[in-house]
Design goal:
transferase, transmembrane helix, alpha/beta, Glycerol-3-phosphate (1)-acyltransferase, 15% strand, Plipid/glycerol_acylTrfase, 1-acyl-sn-glycerol-3-phosphate acyltransferase, 8 helices, globular, membrane
């Protein structure tokens, strides 16, 4: 554990988040991609601080697998780390997230200006329609769409049945799917203030067409690939 580093990282977040939140509000009038470019600098600063303060490094394997056109990224979700770092790793993207996050002072205000798809996870079919409608709009606007099919952060090694939203969006829009594996939970544990030093690996799988696959088939294919990557990296 890095207790002092974790405290320093928290102080850094407390310092820069209000600034970027106010900036996000000020630049609301800018086009979506321009807003994204400016606000996402927050993510770069946080990831650099995590490396300097906590010794959290990362590597990306398979970046060449990303198609040039926007697609749906279905990712393993172990930590808050990937919700931040993906802004620095992938092309401009939006995330499907629970709408409660937009109510967090400062952080939520800035997040709202990055065109997320904020859903009520308890609304069932209505949330699914929202993902489809807004996801289609974001893809058409040139944004990749990141979805965590597990629906919540999972401890390393734990599994949960995939939700259908991401696969549904890809199927309905005829968009390619790219599976993403990440082992961030070892360095940035769920529900823990303290961070561990180590190397996080982000593995990007090969894009595949959803044309001849059902929603269940898509999720199964993504799950099988992600689970096949889980034993390739040491803990952190």
């Amino acid at each position: 554990m890095r207790p002092i580093g974790s405290i320093l990282l928290a102080l850094w977040l407390a310092l820069i988040t209000p600034f970027f939140s106010l900036l996000a509000i000020i630049i609301t009038f800018l086009p979506a991609h321009r807003r994204y470019a400016l606000i996402s600098q927050w993510s770069y600063l946080v990831i650099k601080a995590a490396r300097l303060c906590c010794g959290i490094r990362y590597r990306v394997i398979g970046l060449q697998n990303l198609p040039p056109q926007p697609c749906v990224l279905l990712s393993r979700h172990e930590s808050t780390w990937e919700t931040i770092a993906y802004q620095a790793i992938f092309p401009p993207q939006v995330m499907v997230l629970k709408k409660e996050l937009l109510r967090i002072p400062f952080f939520g205000w800035g997040l709202a200006r990055m065109s997320p798809i904020a859903i009520d996870r308890g609304s069932g079919r209505r949330a699914l329609r929202q993902v489809e409608e807004q996801g289609r709009e974001r893809l058409a606007a040139g944004f990749y769409v990141v979805i965590f099919p597990e629906g919540t952060r999972m401890a390393p090694g734990a599994q949960r049945e995939y939700q259908s939203g991401g696969a549904w969006l890809a199927k309905k829009t005829g968009t390619q799917v790219v599976p993403v594996a990440v082992n961030s939970g070892y360095c940035w544990p769920k529900h823990s203030f303290f961070k561990r030093s180590g190397l996080i690996t982000v593995r990007i799988g090969t894009a595949f067409s959803t044309a001849d696959l059902s929603v269940t088939d898509i999720n199964m294919k993504v799950n099988q690939w992600i689970e096949s990557q889980s034993d390739k990296d040491e803990k952190g």
